[in-house]
Amino acid sequence: MKTRIGVLLGLLILPLLISAAPLKPGHDAVASAHPLATQVGMQILAQGGNAFDAAVAVSAALAVVEPYSSGIGGGGFWLLHLAKDDHDTFIDGREYAPAAASASMYQDKNGEVIPGASLNGPLSAAIPGEPAALVYLNKHYGRLTLAQDLAPAIKLARDGFPLDRLFHEMIANRVDKLKQWPAAAAVFMPGDQVPPAGYLLKQPDLARTLELIASKGDAGFYTGELAKAMVDAVRANGGIWSLADLRDYKVIERQPLVGSYHDMRIVSAPPPSSGGIVMLEALNILSGYDLPLLSDVMQKHYIIEAMRYAYRDRAEYLGDPAFVKMPLPRLLSPYYAAGLRVSILPDKATPSSDLAPVLAQAPESDHTTHISILDKDGNRVAATFTVNFRFGSGFMPPGTGVILNDEMDDFVSKTGVPNGFGLVGNSANAIAPHKRPLSSMMPTFLVTKDGLAILGTPGGSRIISMVLLGTLDYYRGGDAESIVSIPRYHMQYLPDAVYYEPDAFTPEAITGLGKMGYTLRQTNPYGNMQAITWDYKSGKVTAASDPRDIGTAIVK
Ligand code: DON
Predict the structure, then answer these.
(1) pLDDT at 20
(2) 17: confidence class by pLDDT, cuts 50, 70, 90
């Protein structure tokens, strides 16, 4: 009897022991796409803030130093882990469509999609979610006051900071877009010139807007003078926002999507992001192959096919859960994955045209941002947020300093017509009043018995394939540096082509994949991943910012 109880206890306790993480890493770590924002995060942590305060501060700082990627005129997702409760949660600060939006709003009277209509100017802007998300994050999870969390961003906006090379290039590449909107041009092209690197860029209007949020919370942005200024300017320039749209916007706290790959637990973004679902479906397909035993070409073949099938289901099924019923249990079922696996041939690419009759184009260049944060107590944040394309809609309501997003382009303007990222879809992601556009952003935690990783990246439709490759790398034992550095390749079902970075495929892989029937297209390096890992046994924390860009990561 005793032995039996002993065995029973052992069986009960064993899994606890296996999954027991040391309680605290004892290190703070921040990885972000801009050195000044990373510094802000470390400063807030040193001041006694927790990872959630740091996330608010870094997000707000990025709105100032990297406004072409994200900002308070945009939205995003903040994935949190609360160490003391061992609890994960997800803050959905995604924009929603204005109430006056409609499924065909970007089509002309013949039903043709008007090129660029969902990408430029106030009509392309959805109602921002980032201000509400930051206020919520601070209020429910932070240790410092909102004013403390926002202070570094306000200072950077008011006192200015030296323009970096990347920012200079972003302005230079978007001169046409910015010139259309005088308030944006006045800030980013003073004297009608693209300012040189090193120029002290001050954004006093943005500083005032941030101060309003710091002192009044949601009300500072979503009601009152600022809201009126934004709505008036949007409407005067062809947009359809109303005061009620702003007033009614709410952050949604959701349960993260949880799945696994072999014995690794994956915590990622649920709908209205497609990222978690698509990655888990792809990993379910891949878990039926013994990848490490396969040749390099065969591994790539199966990974590309898994991407193809999973991205296809994104196009067919996914959208805002408040508006569409999605067959998520089926998409995430191992039996469904097994069925898909059967149709993947070992020696041949599957033409995407065998899967569904829609057309698409190549993805374009883009921007967004990701931050990864771990504090010494073990709280963590992965967050990806955006104004969508570089400088979003390009539109800045005068006097606000806020660049509005062009997130409406993440909806389907017409079934089968690709959006700016070449993504297609159907009515599941059609435009509707107060609906959230389907996203690919997927802040993610990976947890094994030996440690964990915090990761994510911008990159539009390529976000999902990047996080998938990063996940497989971590599973193979990669640290933060390796996760952000590994060469990337991408397939999104349509267009039926594999995009790859110069170092992603060996000459043998190029020949081998070519023989299987793949169309291979080399691209410039892409993505801007930020990752942190914590190894329980050694206690080592690693943090890294994508070497393709200017970001930094600090561990202390
Ligand atoms: O939510 C999405 O999927 C897109 N709006 C993200 C845009 C993006 O990542 C642009 N970045 N490079």
Answers:
(1) 56
(2) very low
Ligand 1 midpoint to CA 458 (Å): 6
Phi, psi dihedral angles at 370 (to 5 degrees): -135, 145
Task: Flag whether pLDDT at 4 surpasses 90.
Answer: no
Ligand 1 geometric centre to CA of 94 (Å)? 11
State the alpha helices, DSSP H only, in 290-347. 296-317, 328-331, 334-342
Pocket test for ligand 1, best of 385, 406, 463 (most atoms within 8 A of CB): 463
Cβ(120)–Cβ(180) below 8 Å? yes
Question: Residue 390 class from Cβ within 10 Å (0-12 exposed, 13-18 middle, 19+ buried)?
Answer: buried
pLDDT on residue 23: 76
Question: Which ligand 1 atom sits closest to the C-alpha of 461?
Answer: 3
User: What secondary structure letter does DSSP report for 20?
Assistant: -
75 ligand 1 Cβ < 6 A: no
Q: What are the sequence ranges of the domains in the chain?
A: 29-250+365-400, 254-354+441-555
Residue of the nearest CA to atom 1 in ligand 1?
439
Does ligand 1 lie within 6 Å of residue 392's CB atom? no
Its pTM stands at 0.94
DSSP secondary structure string, 374-433?
E-TTS-EEEEEEE-SSTTTTS---TTT-PPPP-GGGGSBSSTT---TTS----GGGB--T
Residues involved in catalysis: 368
Q: Which atom of ligand 1 is nearest to the CA of 440?
A: 3
**Domain 254-354+441-555 bears CATH identifier 1.10.150.130:** no
| Residue pLDDT, tens place only, 272-302 | 999 999 999 999 999 999 999 999 999 999 9
Gap from CA of 460 to ligand 1 centroid (Å): 4
Q: In the predicted model, is pLDDT for residue 19 greater than 90?
A: no
Both structure tokens of 301: 């073949």
What average pLDDT does this structure show over 307-312? 97
**For ligand 1, is residue 28 a contact (CB within 6 Å)?**
no
Q: What is the pLDDT of residue 452?
A: 98
Task: Please check whether residue 469 is in contact with residue 486, taking contact to mean a CB–CB distance below 8 angstroms.
Answer: yes
Compute the Cα dihedral for 430, 433, 435, 440 and give only its sign. positive
Q: What is the pLDDT of residues 201-212, one digit of tens each?
A: 999 999 999 999
Query: Which of 366, 389, 409 is the best mutation target for the ligand 1 pocket, counting ligand atoms within 8 Å of the beta carbon and taking the most?
Result: 366
Q: Hunting for tokens 């561990």 — which residue is that?
A: 555
Residue 41 zone, left/alpha/beta (φ > 0; ψ -120 to 50; rest): alpha
CA of 98 to the centre of ligand 1 (A): 19
CA dist list (Å): 550 to 114, 164, 196, 381, 528? 35, 9, 17, 21, 9
Which ligand 1 atom minimizes the distance to the CA of 94? 1
Structure tokens at 156: 């950077």
Can you read off the two tokens belonging to residue 79? 């994935």
Which residues are 81's β-sheet partners?
Answer: 88, 380
Residue 170 parent element (H or E): helix 165-173
Ligand 1, atom 10, lies closest to the CA of 367
Gap from CA of 388 to ligand 1 centroid (Å)? 5
pLDDT at 1 exceeding the cut of 80: no
